[in-house]
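Researcher: Re-running this chain for the archive, since the previous output was lost when a drive failed. Same request as before.
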Amino acid sequence: MKRITSIDFTRGLVMIIMALDHVRDFIHVDAVSQSPTNLSTTTPILFFTRWITYLCAPTFVFLAGTSAYITFNRENNMAQSRKFLLKRGLWLVLLEFTLVNFGLYFDPGFHNFLFEVIAAIGFGFIMLSLLIKFPVKSIAIIGLLIICCHNLLPLIPFSEGSVVKAILMPFFGVVGFPLSSQTTFVVAYPPVPWLGIMLVGFASGKLFELPGAKRKMLFVKIGSGALLLFAVVRFVNIYGDPSLWSAQKDGVYTFLSFMNVTKYPPSLLFCLVTLGIMFLILAFAEQMQNNAAKILTVYGRVPLFYFLVHFYLIHLIMVAVMFIQGFHFADMDFASGGFGRPKAVASGLQLWAVYLIWVGVVVVLYKPCAWFGKYKAAHKENAWLKYL
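Model: Regenerated structure tokens:
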């Protein structure tokens, strides 16, 4: 089966946007001291610099599920598909706590283990290997129930010190706990809510079997419907996100409050707005045949390779910026989870410089991604390439 260009285009687009968030996280002068979505301290441009990157993780997870469906449908071998999903899931979890965590912290002592998007995808693949024997409709229903209903969990009145709550929290909510006196484990991407997105993505793989024109029209309807539902549910302001919106000092900040949805874990409203936009991008990508589309698909064909390399490149740039600003290696703190940024000292660059570095990172990674994409396509006999 030929690669589906609209998937590679959409994935490539959000991966490029993802690099902006990581450059901001590592290098922006205020990244350590304030949240870009805190309405009392942020600016509209900083808010949307962060908000636009909300598209990345749900699209990445959703399309991972879609790609799993397409691979499963192509191979038509239940046992082989389950084995591959299980092995790939375990590999991604291992990768998260080794290469990804080291690229994030540059801490050889591994004082912090962070369960983020790669591990969440790995968990999703492991669960999908168990659920793949069920009908696609059943998988879709399970995924939708998780997306729509997991926000009910905080409303359950668990008793103080509840064992059930202690067991459920790492699967449904952000939580951190010590593994030792010097090591902390943090679940930043609670696996069950992200599993819901992957399962719906898997079931949506069936839509890519439709003719192009019909598929495009359906994507427009799904995307528009999700955005309309987001607007209605958000306006009602009762359910769908733990952070309710409110009137602010002016119309712009009231709009920011309206759009300020929760990613950790991904709320129903977060999923509606981000996946709604994703479906519209998929529809738009169906007709894209120009050079820009070809460039985006280069990145979209090698998502894990890009993810790993861009993390290390951005972190090395951050270290270089610290040296240029006059800091020494002894000033950098890699063990506390601050990526090496000096503590209690102003460091980093203004937002305009963050954008310039982001563009530079994306440009620099084009050639390596193009080379690896061609190498992978030309060496399909190498089974290990399926895992990158």
